From TrEMBL:
One Pfam family matching this protein: APH
Aminoglycoside phosphotransferase domain residues: 38-256
Organism: Candidatus Nealsonbacteria bacterium CG23_combo_of_CG06-09_8_20_14_all_39_17
Domain of life: Bacteria
Name assigned to this protein: Aminoglycoside phosphotransferase domain-containing protein
GO MF annotations, alphabetized: amino acid kinase activity
Record family assignment: Belongs to the pseudomonas-type ThrB family.
InterPro entries, per database record: Aminoglycoside_PTrfase, Kinase-like_dom_sf, Pseudomonas-type_ThrB
Length: 322
């Protein structure tokens, strides 16, 4: 996959990155490596004589307002004490623009975390790490911001709309099981649930363990003002779910609830509806990867991973919860 096609600049990256390093004051450029994770932006680890940095070049489809939104949320998250990589400031501020041949790219520069995310590690967090991750989720959900809404096709709240557009790409068996979720979704009265600022994408690929064992929460690109339980549902469908050992899930579910409620009290309505919300999180991990595979030819290991997790997770939860 040519990740550079996600941005406007298609030339040699060396002069591009030399300018970035100079304007951010992070040292003299020496090397770069592409970070081949995710569906959206163009991420690079960049080495200079001062160290290593993460340069996130926003995909060309993101307009100026969306990029400002993203960087502004990262500032709020860091201010709230969430474990997130630090931002570096350029002569333009945290959000930086660079133009070539009449086309503009926008980017930011962050602390480079030496480590691996849990998708790369192919593992689930330890109990201690799970407790820390849940604390981070609670910190995020208590941030008093309501950013302009950004449509995210993977979001649980967009299930019905996405099913209408992409349900035709499901195989017969998946379609039969997902059709049963339509009634479940309609019964949730989502607009009546407590809402707050939600990361919405705390998955294995966005949760990193550094070489010292510290945990970082990454990628607030699709954070929105959502039903509060959406945060837990997304965490529970991936970071706290092992497709190879699904029988461990009930214990992880109980841990997530008990830890979260040390910081944020859930309503009785939220506690009743969370199981169906977790099912819907798995449902989205069947629907979207199936579409990616059939319509876009996406046969990447990451896409196959989500498809497997979604299929295994939804069927297991139907078995234990009905």
């Amino acid at each position: 996959m040519d990740f550079q096609k996600r941005i406007n600049y298609q030339g040699d990256l060396k002069p591009f990155l030399q300018q970035v390093c100079s304007d951010f004051g992070i040292g003299e450029y020496s090397t770069y490596e592409i970070v081949p994770i995710g569906y959206e932006d163009f991420d690079l680890s960049v080495g200079t004589d001062k160290g290593k940095y993460l340069v996130k070049v926003f995909r060309s489809l993101r307009g100026e307002a969306e990029c400002k939104r993203y960087v502004g949320m990262m500032e709020s998250v860091l201010k709230a004490g969430v474990s997130h990589p630090l931002l570096f400031e350029s002569n333009q501020g945290y959000l930086y623009e660079i133009s070539n041949n009449g086309l503009t790219d926008r980017l930011c520069v962050m602390q480079y975390i030496e480590g691996k995310n849990f998708y790369e590690l192919q593992s689930t967090p330890t109990v201690k790490e799970k407790k820390f991750i849940i604390k981070q989720a609670a910190l995020i959900n208590e941030i008093n911001i309501n950013p302009s809404h950004l449509y995210d096709q993977w979001a649980i709240t967009n299930f019905l709309e996405e099913y209408e557009k992409k349900g035709k790409y499901l195989d017969k068996e998946d379609r039969a099981i997902i059709e049963l979720m339509i009634e479940r979704y309609n019964s949730l009265s989502i607009d009546d649930l407590p809402h707050c600022f939600v990361h919405g994408d705390i998955l294995k690929g966005n949760t990193m363990r550094d070489k010292g064992g510290d945990i970082y929460i990454l990628d607030f690109a699709v954070a929105n003002y959502y039903p509060r339980i959406q945060e837990l549902a997304v965490i529970l469908c991936d970071l706290f779910f092992d497709a190879g050992n699904p029988e461990e899930f009930p214990e992880n579910y109980d841990l997530a609830l008990s830890e979260y409620q040390k910081y944020v009290s859930l309503t009785e309505d939220e506690l009743i509806k969370l199981p169906d919300y977790v099912k819907l999180a798995h449902t989205m991990h069947i629907l979207l990867p199936s579409w990616e595979k059939a319509a876009n030819g996406n046969d990447s290991s990451e896409n196959e991973y989500f498809l497997r997790m979604g299929r295994t997770g939804l069927r297991y939860l139907n078995k234990i919860w009905g």
